[in-house]
Design goal:
heterodimer; A: Rossmann fold; Rossmann fold; 43% helix; B: mainly alpha; two-stranded antiparallel sheet
């Protein structure tokens, strides 16, 4: 045996030992009066930009609340965020457990992706820690869980709104819709929303002439677009993340297909959509869970800090953190059990909650914010503007180039 | 088969005893125990993979297929028919074994990279089916194992420690199966296939049959791990359970980093990689996006460069034929 091999063996043993020790050591001693809140978001991987946007919203809310004197009922305690990157559902359970047992979080906010949120909720439910989320798969609040709260409407509600709002706008513009096309990426989010669309179309007696799922990483949308062109649909409803959404809109515009397109949130309403499409983005409609123009001061603050308009995931997640803080104010405690009880009976219509359509956060027995509703936004220049329903709209929708009164 | 207690076995035995005692000394609901349970589960998965990947050098990159079949079979039987996941675990093993047998017919003609690609495609096909055949699988939103409190007959427990012990027991079973296979006549035949398939055939080894048996056993054990994973995490979806990078590659990687074809390799590999990944996530994932994966990847590259034959190669060989000769990982796909 040579010295070299001994050295290597020693190094490996040290690495092994260090790894095991570090896994067991508490991560950070927490300051006595800080309230620790966990954030799980996909900060790397395919959904990173949504996770990063969400995190920014949460940070903005935390900074705002801390600057305004922290949590008053707890003697001005400051919010301390502990963030964990959860790129896939498989990583969610361990990360969430870590936040709970190592960092002693009072609540967890996140995660943008539905499947990751479902996985994390299995841990929070058993540990008795509130999980407040923006993810909108129906299952999240459909399992009778006590510790999970959904700030925005469910996926099927979004799908139904996407259809109903669009046909209402078309009707106001004097166009009767008989045939529509649904295109969706085949993840939990796409299928749930497509189901809502399909059911709403069926209820309205509108024919779905194209109903097509495609894989998330699709690289060539031309077969989809050709099929759409041949289908005779008067309106297209693509439910997509970013890259697939960009490809679909670009292909439609390049082929001069002028049927109105109503996007399904996610990729359609983030700054990169405009960046990727330029003028092609103008006039594209999309359903959304919130919009910056509903809460202009916060939107301006966000833009000053991060240089882009506030996305709906940032806004809703900010409202989620605010809801947790309000529950702590009412409970006069950061104890997860008490925070949960106050969240369940919360009726909060101030602060960041004003950015949620409906203006309030009030959870029903399942933990769903029943007072909120989806809105329609339409691209005008560099930002999407709320155009529907009238009770929330900031401007009138434009349909086939004409303003709808 | 002659059994002789070697120093390596004593170490392994002591490890199992220490592992069994761990939950008594740490927080039974804590993070450490969860990470330890995952490390042991991945050790069992990598050991299952090692039966076909290590002993016969058939590098499969599609074992997530069997893992997912195990999870889906037991969970669907439980949700739809109320059959206990314990029975579902065995049913999953049978389903995965059959799938492996079916897959073997066309793929065992393929060598090296082509075999790896074919197995990879098989897992991808199952992922797509699980995503699109929603009536059967529940679709892309995944399946949730209902939370029942502690009901041992339904494979449901409150404490992480219960799952931890079940996982440990599974690891012991998989290791025993591996040991028996490696040291019986089967082991000689598999090694003959690994060293030179044509020569083995000439020497009278029915290479197809040998690979088939090993493959079916490997798949069945992987499926059992899949059931345990589903019960332990309570939730899975097609993309995560049939994941190439999350499951298939990880199983192979753990075995290769630990020591391909060795009894201790998958255990050391899992005990090294899983906590390392967790530590990287804990310390770095809040600093910069993707930094933890980058650091994890760099350490992995360094580990393979320093010792291509795996961590096991650092330990002195026990004399004789106790352990099959480890192959350099870089030659792993030679076929």
């Amino acid at each position: 045996m040579t010295v070299a091999t001994l050295g290597r063996r020693g190094a490996v043993a040290a690495l092994l030992g260090a790894g095991l020790l570090a896994a067991g050591a508490p991560l950070a001693a927490r300051a006595a009066d800080d309230v620790v809140i966990g954030v799980i978001q996909p900060l790397s991987g395919p959904n990173a930009q949504f996770g990063i946007g969400s995190l920014r919203g949460i940070e903005l809310a935390a900074d705002t609340i801390n600057a305004a004197g922290g949590i008053k009922a707890l003697g001005g305690a400051k919010i301390k965020l502990v963030t964990a990157d959860v790129p896939t559902p498989n990583t969610a359970a361990a990360a969430t457990q870590r936040l709970i047992s190592q960092n002693g979080v009072s609540a967890v906010i996140g995660a943008f992706v539905s499947s990751t949120t479902l996985a994390a909720s299995e841990v929070t439910e058993r540990a008795g820690i509130p999980l407040v989320t923006f993810a909108f798969a129906d299952q999240i609040t459909g399992r009778g869980y006590k510790y999970v709260f959904q700030v925005s409407p469910k996926g099927t509600v979004f799908g139904a709104a996407q259809f109903n709002y669009a046909t209402e706008i078309a009707k106001a513009a004097g166009e009767k819709i008989d045939k529509i096309a649904i295109l969706y990426e085949d993840t939990a989010y796409g299928t749930a929303q497509a189901k809502g669309l399909r059911d709403a179309a069926k209820a309205a007696g509108v024919e779905v002439v194209m109903d097509e799922a495609y894989p998330l990483g699709i690289t060539d949308v031309s077969p989809l677009v050709n099929k759409l062109k041949a289908s005779g649909a008067q309106m297209a409803f693509p439910v997509s993340y970013l890259n697939d959404g960009l490809q679909i809109i670009r292909a439609l515009r390049q082929q001069n297909i002028d049927i109105p397109v109503v996007g399904g949130a996610a990729g359609y309403i983030i700054p990169d959509f405009k960046k990727g499409l330029g003028d092609y983005a103008e006039g594209v409609l999309s359903v959304a869970a919130a919009s910056g123009d509903l809460i202009p001061e916060v939107a301006a603050e966000y833009k000053k800090k991060y240089g882009t308009f506030i996305t709906h995931e940032a806004l809703i997640h900010a409202a989620a953190l605010d809801a947790v803080v309000q529950a702590m104010e009412k409970a006069k405690s950061a104890d997860p059990e008490k925070v949960r009880a106050e969240l369940a009976s919360l009726d909060y219509c101030k602060g960041f909650a004003q950015g949620v359509p409906g203006g309030c956060i009030k959870f029903d027995a399942n933990g769903l914010n029943a007072s909120s509703f989806p809105v329609f936004v339409q691209w005008r220049g560099d930002e999407p503007v709320t155009v529907y329903p009238p009770k929330a709209a900031k401007q009138k929708p434009i349909w086939r180039g004409k303003t709808v009164e | 088969m002659r059994f002789a207690l070697k120093p390596g076995h004593v170490v392994l035995l002591l490890f199992f005893i220490a592992a069994a005692l761990l939950p008594l000394f740490v927080d039974p609901r804590g993070h450490l125990l969860r990470v330890a349970a995952m490390a042991l589960l991945f050790a069992a998965m990598a050991q299952s993979w090692n039966i076909i990947g290590g002993l016969a050098n058939q590098i499969s990159l599609g074992h997530a297929a069997f893992f997912g079949l195990g999870a889906y079979t037991s969970t669907l039987l439980f949700l739809r028919l109320g059959i206990s996941p314990w029975i579902g675990m065995l049913a999953g093993a049978v389903v995965a074994g059959l799938a492996a047998a079916l897959l073997s017919v066309p793929t065992f003609r393929l060598k090296g990279h082509y075999f790896a690609l074919a197995t990879l495609a098989f897992a991808e096909v199952l992922r797509v089916i699980a995503n699109s055949w929603a009536d059967l699988s529940g679709g892309p939103v995944g399946l949730t194992v209902p939370f029942l409190g502690t009901q041992p007959l339904s494979f449901a427990f409150r404490a992480v420690s219960s799952y931890y012990w079940i996982i440990l027991a599974l690891l012991v079973i998989v290791c025993v199966v591996f040991y028996v296979l490696a040291h019986g006549a089967m082991g000689y035949r598999l090694r003959a296939v690994r060293e030179n398939e044509a020569a083995a055939e000439v020497a009278g080894v029915n290479t197809f049959r040998v690979k088939l048996v090993a493959s079916v056993i490997s798949a069945a054990l992987t499926a059992m791990c899949g059931t345990v994973f589903a019960q332990f995490t309570f939730f899975f979806d097609p993309d995560s359970i049939f994941s190439l990078s999350g499951i298939s590659v990880r199983m192979a990687m753990i075995a290769i980093v630990g020591g391909l074809g060795t009894l201790g390799g998958p255990i050391i590999g899992a005990l090294f990689l899983i906590p390392l990944e967790e530590v990287a996530n804990a310390y770095l994932s809040s600093r910069a996006a993707g930094l933890s994966q980058l650091v994890f990847g760099l350490i992995l590259i360094a580990a393979i460069l320093i010792q291509p034959r795996g961590i096991m190669a650092f330990f002195p060989k026990t004399k004789g034929k106790t352990q099959p000769k480890a192959q350099p990982a870089t030659e792993g796909a030679r076929g």
